[in-house]
């Protein structure tokens, strides 16, 4: 099936440290991998995405890496700040359907001051 | 700015009631989606619509139906609400020139 597994489910980091969330996907032909951030009580919002023809993408303190051989991609947040506390979802688009995204179960990130 | 709105933030219904959840987007997006969000399960796709009057089942369509009579509006219908449909329901839309899905604020539905 079209599966995305996300780890860890919770992550607590000291302010200023880095946070890494990893996702694995089931279909090697998947071509699009977005990350969404959902702050408490708010709607999920796209923070970064990567396509299968790129190995890494950065946007200020966040970066995403993709390893197509191993079928996994990761979100890296450097110099974490309290406003990074949120639930993060990874997702993948599978070739069977161009409209759908399959989401991971989410990672609750808590940044300790 | 893309705006996706949902008819209610909170809703309480009784078992067996017919429930309508509505979603409206103002960006002329072709694709619209309904998800439910449960702790530890992430976002699971119920139904989606790639254009007006078109619909396709997602991963968990049982107990739900949808309607898309106009491009900007996508409705989720619970024909006979059950307690296991208590959840957060999120609507999203996407245009064909972008991969980004834009989410609504969510409706927290409680079925008693």
Task: Provide an overview of this structure.
Helices cover 0% and strands 54% of the residues of chain A. Chain A has strands at residues 4-7, 10-14, 19-25, 32-38, 45-51, 56-59, 62-67, 72-77, 86-92, 102-103, 107-112. Chain B is mainly beta and 112 residues long. Chain B has no helices and 11 strands. In chain B, the strands form 2 sheets. In chain B, strands 2, 4, 5, 6, 9, 10 and 11 form a 7-stranded mixed sheet that branches. Classes of the chains: A mainly beta (113), B mainly beta (112). Chain A binds chain B through residues 6, 9, 32, 34, 36, 42-46, 49, 89, 91, 93, 99-106, and chain B through 4, 31, 35, 40-45, 48, 50, 56, 58-59, 90, 94, 99-101, 103-106.
Tags for this entry?
heterodimer; A: 113 residues; mainly beta; six-stranded mixed sheet; five-stranded antiparallel sheet; 11 strands; 0% helix; 54% strand; globular; B: 112 residues; seven-stranded mixed sheet; four-stranded antiparallel sheet
Précis, in short:
The complex is a heterodimer of chains A (113) and B (112). Chain A is mostly beta strands and 113 residues long.
**Could you spell the SSE succession of chain A in H and E letters?**
EEEEEEEEEEE
What does the main sheet of chain B amount to? 7 strands, mixed
List low-pLDDT spans of chain B. Answer: none
- Radius of gyration of chain A (CA) equals 14 Å
Topology overview:
The complex is a heterodimer of chains A (113) and B (112).
Chain A (H helix, E strand, L loop, with lengths): L3 E4 L2 E5 L4 E7 L6 E7 L6 E7 L4 E4 L2 E6 L4 E6 L8 E7 L9 E2 L3 E6 L1
Parallel strand pairs in A: 2-11
Antiparallel strand pairs in A: 1-3, 3-8, 4-5, 4-9, 6-7, 7-8, 9-10, 9-11
Chain B lengths: L3 E3 L3 E4 L5 E7 L5 E8 L3 E8 L6 E2 L6 E7 L2 E6 L8 E8 L7 E2 L3 E5 L1
Parallel strand pairs in B: 2-11
Antiparallel strand pairs in B: 1-3, 3-8, 4-5, 4-9, 5-6, 7-8, 9-10, 9-11
């Amino acid at each position: 099936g079209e599966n995305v597994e996300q780890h860890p489910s919770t992550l607590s980091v000291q302010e200023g440290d880095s946070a890494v969330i990893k996702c694995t996907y089931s279909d090697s032909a998947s071509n699009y991998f977005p990350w969404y951030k959902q702050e408490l009580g708010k709607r999920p919002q796209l923070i970064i995405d990567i396509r299968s023809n790129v190995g890494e993408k950065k946007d200020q303190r966040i970066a995403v890496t993709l390893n197509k051989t191993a079928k996994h991609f990761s979100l890296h947040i450097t110099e974490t700040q309290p406003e990074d506390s949120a639930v993060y979802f990874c997702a993948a688009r599978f070739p069977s359907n161009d409209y759908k995204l399959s989401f991971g179960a989410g990672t609750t990130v808590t940044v300790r001051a | 700015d893309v705006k996706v709105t949902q008819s209610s933030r909170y809703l309480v219904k009784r078992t067996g009631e017919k429930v309508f959840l509505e979603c409206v987007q103002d960006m002329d997006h072709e694709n619209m989606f309904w998800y439910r969000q449960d702790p530890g399960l992430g976002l699971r796709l119920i139904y989606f619509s790639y254009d007006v009057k078109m619909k396709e089942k997602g991963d968990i369509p049982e107990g739900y139906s949808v309607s898309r009579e106009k491009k900007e509006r996508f409705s989720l219908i619970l024909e006979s609400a059950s307690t296991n449909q208590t959840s957060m329901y999120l609507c999203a839309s996407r245009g064909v020139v972008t991969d980004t899905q834009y989410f609504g604020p969510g409706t927290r539905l409680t079925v008693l």
